[in-house]
Amino acid sequence: MSNIDYDDLMKPVIGFLGCETPKAWLDEAVNHLDILMQDHANCEKKAASTAMNLMFRYNFFSDLQVRLAQLVREEMLHYEQVLELMKKRGQAWISLSAGRYAGGLRKEVRTYEPEALIDILVIGAFVEARSCERFYALAPCVDEELGRYYRYLLKSESRHYEDYLTLAVDVAKNYQLKNPQETIQDRIEHIREVEKNLILSPDDTFRFHSGVPVQAA
Ligand SMILES: [Fe+2]
Ligand SMILES: [Fe+2]
Questions:
Q1: Number of folded domains in the chain?
Q2: Ligand 1 center to 159 CA (angstroms)
Q3: Domain range holding 43?
Q4: How many Å lie between the centroid of ligand 2 and the Cα of residue 92?
Q5: How many angstroms does the Cα of residue 157 sit away from the middle of ligand 2?
Q6: Which runs of E-coded beta strand occur in the chain?
Q7: Distance (Å, rounded) from C-alpha 167 to C-alpha 67?
Q8: Residue 54 is part of a domain; what is its CATH number?
């Protein structure tokens, strides 16, 4: 194993998020590794698709093209890796509905541009930061093989978080805002609260980004 200082790597990520993953969620995850892995696979595919959609929708914004093209490639690679790992471990494919997390965040996207794009990018930063934080918290709780994989993944997810945040700041700086009173910092704080609430409130559907399992809440 490389000697990366994970605590150093995690500091900005944990500082960005409004809360850490509750212990009750981690306990549930360890007892439902099949759902966790399947939903994680689904999230990787979804992450690639979201980034690809942004590339089409905002094709005038060239910085976004380059960063997102790389992100799409990485998320698709993660998708293949998780499927591979599931196969190796003899885990059958499960058909799972989406949890409430992504939809709960998407509701916050404003309806006018460039604010809508800024919100989507800020939300992207939170989703990546949360994934990174969850991999870090899960790594010591799961078996050696999965733990090693999660530690490997959290490095790319921390980079994805930074990429989304950089893009959001760039858009806020370079495009005329419809509503200049609401700064990007205000949006980050607002989304942080919404995200924190999705993580800390009771949730009856266990998923990779779910809240506190209902029995434990
Ligand atoms: Fe990923
Ligand atoms: Fe990612």
A1: 1
A2: 10
A3: 22-216
A4: 24
A5: 4
A6: 202-203, 212-213
A7: 9
A8: 1.20.1260.10
